[in-house]
Amino acid sequence: MALFQTANLTVAPCTPNDREDFIALELDPDVMHFLNGGAVDHEATDPDAVDFLMPRGTEPFVWTARLKDSGEFVGWFCLSSADGRSAEIGYRLCKRNWGRGFASVGARVLVDWGFADVGYEMIAACTMAVNLGSRRVMEKLGMRHVRTVEVKSQFLPGADQGEVWYEMSRAEWRSIRKPSDRRV
């Protein structure tokens, strides 16, 4: 896995040393609002039994983002593939880092790497329709909305509006590509 440096971030493959930071994200009810309806109850939740990623620092498709100058934890990004031809991008950031452009920057380096170096043909992302911040990140990446699917949940806020899926093909990426990173 590659290591990336941007103007403000270091995006590096996760390690077990990141586990506490990852768990702290799951304990923040605002961070988990659209995934779990609030903070994760770690006493009662099996990470393998939920339909969202709960990384623990050993996942080969998860990168940790830290501020380049201080090493402060910003959040994590993932780019996972089930078939080697397409991948799904995801991200979770500490609330204090929302609105600072870090989600777009971190996701962009992985999208660029996925298309340019790994050779994916398609990269997708999804979120709740009401999660406007995450949708803006996908749009900034150049992804396009391709479908909205029904969500069968009574406790997720906005579930009645569904889950939106965005995609970008390698050809679409090539047409809008701008250098976004320096790989270390």
Summary tags:
nine-stranded mixed beta sheet, alpha+beta, 5 helices, Aminopeptidase, 28% strand
Outline the structure in words:
- The protein has 184 residues and is of the alpha+beta class.
- The chain has a single domain, classed as 3-Layer(aba) Sandwich (Aminopeptidase).
- It is built from five helices and nine strands, in the order E-E-H-H-E-E-E-H-E-H-E-E-H-E.
- It has helices at 19-27, 33-36, 102-118, 132-140, 170-176; strands spanning 4-5, 9-13, 62-67, 73-80, 86-93, 122-128, 144-149, 163-169, 182-183.
- The radius of gyration is 16 Å and the shape is globular.
CATH topology title: Aminopeptidase
The spatial strand order of the largest sheet comes to 7-8-6-5-4-3-2-1-9
CATH superfamily: Gcn5-related N-acetyltransferase (GNAT)
Query: What's the alpha carbon Rg, rounded to whole Å?
Result: 16 Å
Unreliable residue runs:
none
Largest sheet properties? 9 strands, mixed
Number of strands: 9
Give the ordered list of helices and strands. Answer: EEHHEEEHEHEEHE
N-end to C-end Cα span: 11 Å
What structural class do the secondary elements suggest? alpha+beta
Shape: globular
Total helical elements: 5
Estimate what percentage of residues fall within beta strands.
25-35%
CATH architecture: 3-Layer(aba) Sandwich
Kindly provide the name of the CATH class: Alpha Beta
Q: Average pLDDT across residues? A: 90
Please identify the oligomeric state: single chain
Count of folded domains = 1
